[in-house]
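CORE FACILITY INTAKE
Project code: CF-77B
Contact: R.S. (postdoc)
Sample description: multi-component assembly, two entities in total
Requested service: structural model of the whole complex
Turnaround: standard
Below are the sequence entries exactly as provided by the requester. Do not edit them.
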Amino acid sequence: VQVWSAVIIAIIVGAGFCDAFGQGALIGQLGCANCHSDLPVKSNLREVTPDLSSAGLRYNSAWLFEFLRKPSRLKRHLGPARMPDFHFSDSEALALIAFLETQRVPNRGQPEMPAEIVSQIGGTTSVSRAVFQNPLTNGLICLSCHTFEGKGGIQGIELSTVSYRLKPEWVKEYLLAPSRFGVPHHVMPAQFFDPTNQFRALIPQPAQKIQIIGSYLFSLNPQRSKSLQANYEAAKAAYPDASAELGRRIFISQNCAACHRHHTVQPRPQAAPELTHEAARVSPQWLQAFLKRPDAIRPFGYHPGDGSRMPNFGLSDQEVAEIAASLGTGASGGQSKPPALSAFAKRKAKLLLAEKLSCLGCHRFGETGGRIGPDLAHVRERLQPDYVHSIIRNPRETNPHTIMPQVPLPENTIKLIANFLLQHSEKPIESKYLSLTDNALVSGTNNYAKYCAGCHGEDGHGKGFNAAFLPRKPTAHANAAETSLRPDDTLYDAIHSGGYIVNKSQLMPPWGQSLSAREIQELVRHIRTLCQCLGPAWSRDNDK
Amino acid sequence: MKKPFLSVGLIAIAAGAAVAVLLLSPRKKPPPAAVVMQPAERAGTRFEDFVGAETCARCHAQQYDLWRRSTHGRAGGKPSQMEMIARFDGQPLQFKDAVVTPSTNAQGDYVFSVQMEGAPRFDIRVDAIVGGAHMHGGGTQSFFNEFPDGTLRFLPFDFGRRENLWFTQVRSDKTWVPITRELSLKTDLLNWLPNRVLGTSVEFSNCQNCHGSQITLTYDPAQRKHRTQFQTLQINCESCHGPGRQHVELASKPGFDKLADIGMEPLAAQSKDGSLMVCFQCHATKDAIRDAAYLPGEPLEDYFSIKLSLFAENPYLVDGRIRSFGYQANHLYSDCYLNGSMTCVDCHDPHSMEYRDAFQRPLTGKFDNRQCTGCHASKAVAPELHSHHLPGSPGNQCTSCHMPFLQHQGVGLHIAFARSDHTIPIPRPEFDHSLGIENACQKCHRDKDLAWQQGKVREWYGEIKPHHALIARLIDADKKPAGARNRLLAPDAAHPMAQMDALAAFVRTSVKPNTKSEIADKLRVFSRSPDIDLQALALMALHVSGEIEAADVTATQALKSRWGILADQFASMFSANGDLTNAIICLEKSLEVMPDNIVSLSHLAIARAKQGDLQSTLKLLKTAVAIRPHTANLHFQLAQTYLQMQEPTAAIHALEQGLSYAPDNQPARALLRQLRAASPNR
C-alpha cells in the first residue's frame, strides 16, 4: 500500500513537472528524457547538436580523442545542455572515432555545391591577421555570436579553436552552405552564398572571404594541434584493434543518436531506467550524490549487455538540487523502517544469498556476484525500503520495464533478504563500468539477447560479459555435443524453474513467472538454432 | 510410520541366536553388516544437550503447531498421548498354542493378556506406542513393553489399519501375516519372546534410533542393566535441527540478537546432500558402523553407512527400487537427485509434513502434479499430451506413473505396506516385470496384460529414456555374469549408489585374497574417492588382495570401520562357500584395520575352531570378552569352545557369566542345566 501511495504521489508530482519541463526545467534542457524516455518532456537537443552523419568530414580525430575522453563545454547556444562524460577509456574513444571517421554523409536533400565555387575555396593561402579581421568585422556577423580570442558574441564557439578541432575543407564547405551539414539557419545562418537560391552571392567576393577566414583560422594554434596529434597517435599505437564496427556498436550502446542526429542510427527507446517513480525508488541523498558523480549502477548497460552508461554531466550543486527537485525526491517520508535483524538472521541471509538464491547471478554483492544488476551492497544507501521489498516480491509490477525475474520465494525469505540488504553496512566497492571494447556487446532484440546473452553470450558460447564474474561457467548452448544430450523439456524446465533444479548453478534464475510458456518455447527453439542440434531421440515423444 | 525391524546388530551373536552361533556350521548366507565394537567416542553431543519440543514452542509456536499436527508430531508416544488405532476390545487373538487378548485393565492400561498352553496367564502392558497408522499405502501401529533389563521391547502384535486386523512377522520367511490359529506363538513368530529393542544395539536385533527422538541405549555395568533414554517417541524438532540446549541458553541471555552463532545452524542453507542426510537419519536403510548411540547433529556418516549394505545384502534392485524392504534413500537413484537438486523438503514441508513444491509453494496433497511441475514446468503446459490420459483422471497424475505405491515385497502380500517409489522411475512394464515389480500401468489397468501395457508405452513414447549408463551395465552384468566386469568400475559415473553396487559386484566376483589384481589402478582411483563408502570398499579390496598394507593408509575412524566391516563381510561370503582359508585371510585383514572389532574376533574364533585350532579360538574370545565383557554371547561362545576342549567346568562358568548379562536366554539356560546335571561335581 505504501509503495503504491508513493507511486501515486510520484505520478502526481510527475504530472506537476510536465509544466516545469515546459518552462524549460533543467532536466528537460539537459536531454535526460532522451534516454529516460518515460520522462514526460523531451528536449529539442537533437535539432541543435551536431549531426554526426558527416562527423568524418568535420572533426579532427586527434581533438575528438581528447574531447570524448574529457568533454568540455564548447557550444554556448545549447543553454545548460552539454556533452557529458561517458567514462570512455582510450580504446573505447578510439573505436568510436574510427566509426565517426567513416561517417561522411552530408545532409540529404540539400543542393549540390557548384564545382566552380568549391574549386575557388580549395587549398590554403597565407593570410595576415589584418586581412582576416577585415571581413570579420566588416559585413559579416560572425562575431555577433562567436568570439574570437575572447571577444565577440555570447552564444557561438570560440573561433580560434577551429584549427585543432575541425578539418579545413569541411570548415570552408560549411561556411559555403551550413545547412548541408544539418545545422539549422537559426543556429548558423548562411552569410556567403544562398544555398536555397542557386548559391547566389550574398556578399561581394564570398569565395575569397571563405578562403581567407578558413586559411587564417587554420594557421592558429599549431602547437595545440601537434600535441593532440601526438597523443592520438600514441593511443592508436597502444590500441591498434579499435575498429569502426566496434565504434558503431559503442555509438549505439551510448545512445549517441538520442542527442545527435544520424542518418542510420535511431535513438533507442527506454534506454535508461524509468524516473517518473524515482521518489518511491531511491533515497534523495543517494540521488544527489549520484548526479554529482555517477558511478556504474549497471556496469554493462541498463539492458544487460547493451553497454549503456549514465554519463557524468559535471553538474553543479545547484543543478543537482534542481534536478532532484524535478524528480520529486526532495524529501523521503512514509517509508517503513526495516526491523532490526539479529546477527544470526544476517548470517542466514548471507548464506542464502551465497548458496541458495539466484540474486548474485546478476547482482554484485561485495567481492562476489554478477555485473548485470546494481550492486546489492549499495541497497541501503541507494533505495527506499518499500521499493526493495516490492521489487523482490514482484519486479514487473514494481517496474514494468525491468528484466529482473520474479523468483517464487516464501514471504519470510523476501522479508529477510530485503531487510538484510536494507541494513547491510559493509562499505560498498566503487563500481566501474565494464570495458565496451573487451566485452561482447549485445545487439539483438530477441528474448535470448535480452534475458540470456549477458551470461550465455549472444552466440550461445557461454561467454557473455557476465560469465567472468560467475563461479560456474554458463552453459554453452551452441555446443552441440552437450546441448544435444538435453531434451527440449529439460531446456524449458531450466529456463522456467532455474539452474538449481537441473543440478546446475542456482545463479541461473527461474524465468517462469516472468516469461510466458510461448516465450520459453521460443527460447528453446532459439537454443536449437544456436547448437544446430536436436534433443535426444528418446525425448521427442510428443513429436510423434 | 512403521518400519520393520531390520537388525543391523550382531545377528550372528544376537541373544536369540546364541546357540545357533555356538553350533555354527558353514553359514548359508552372509550376515548383514556388523557393528564394530569400539569404545564410545562422543563427538561432544550428549543426551542432556536436547531440550524437547515444548521448549522450542516457547519461541517457535508457529512451527511447533504445524509440527504437532504432523505425522512426525504424532509418530509415537505413551499410550496416554497417542490416538489408539488398534482394537483393544477384548477380542482374543487365537494362536495354535496360545490366546492373546488385547484389552484394557482396571488401571486403564492397554495390555496383551497371554494365555499359553500349560502356563499361567500373564499380562504384558503396553508402555509405548509407535505409529499412528498414518501412511497412505498402509499404516500400522506397534506396541512396546519395558523389560526388567531396561530395554523397551517390541511386541509381536501389530495392528493394520486398512485391514482392520492384528498381524505379526513370522520366522519362516519374515513376512507379515494376519494372526490365525495356524500360527504357533512359540515357534512361528520372529519376535517371540520379544527380542527386538528400541535403540541401536549390538546385543539385540533393534529398531535403531528412528522410532522416537534421541533414543540412546546404553549399558550400565554397575547396575547390570540397560538404560533406554529418549526425549519422546514423536520425531521432534531436534531430530532434524540438532541439540537445542546451547541455543536455549544463549537465547535466554541478553545480547542474543548480537550473536551470529546461536548454537544452531539454519537448515534452509543446507546443501542438497546435507539436507538429504537430515532425513536419511531415519528414512534410509543404513548400517551401524560404531557401537555408540547416534544423536542428531552429529555427522551421520560417523555412525551409519547408507551404502555399505550394497556389498553383502543389497536391499535394492538394480535400478534402486526396493528389493524387500526399505525407505526413501533410493531417491539417490532418481534422476531428480542425480541430474537435479531434489531433496525431501522440495516436496515435503518439514514442519507440517504437508506437500509443497521446490519453491515452497503449498500444495493440495500427495497427488498434486505441481510437486513435479514446479520444476518440470514443460509438462505443465499440457500434461495430457505427455500422460496420454484425460485431464482430471488418475492417469494424468504424475505420481500415478512415476511414483506408484509399490508393496514392499519383504512384507509379503497380506498386509498393505505400499510406499511411493522414490526412485521416480519411468514405467517400463516389461523391465519392471522382469524385476518382479508391479508396473505402474498395472495399478489401474489390471484387466490388461503385460504386452498391452508395454505396447501402450511404445506407442505413446517410442524410444524411452535409457537407464543411467552404469545401471545399464549392471543390468547387462546381471544378464551376463561373465561379461566384461571391468566395465563395472566407473570412478567418474556420478551415481554413487550405482557405483557402489557395481564396485561391490566387481569385488565379489573378481577380487581374491592375496591375489594381485590387474585392475588395481582403478581400485586405487576409487580409494581416493570423496565418497567414504566407495573409498572403504576399494581400500578393502586392495588390502585383501595384497596390494596395500593397512598400516600404510591414514584413515579416519569412520573409514576404518567401513573397511573392517567390509572385510568381515567378505570373509562371511567365503565362509558361506566353505572356503575357510580365504575367510580367515579376510578376517585377519579386518582385524588389522579394526583390532578391537569383537565381531571379527568372534568370527575368526569360529573359523579357527572349525580348523581345530581351539587354543587360538580361546585366545580370540578372551580378547573379545576383555574388550566388551557384558556381551553375553561372547561368553556363550566361550562355553562352546570349552565344551569342545572337554572342559565342562570352564564351560559352566562361561555360561553362568553370560547368563548374568542375559538372564532370559533360554537356550543357554537349558544348556547350563544339561551340563550341571551331567557334571559329577555338582
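Facility notes:
- The beta strands of chain A are 147-148, 151-152, 193-194, 200-201, 364-365, 368-369.
- Confidence is low (pLDDT under 50) at residues 1-23 of chain A.
Invoice: internal transfer
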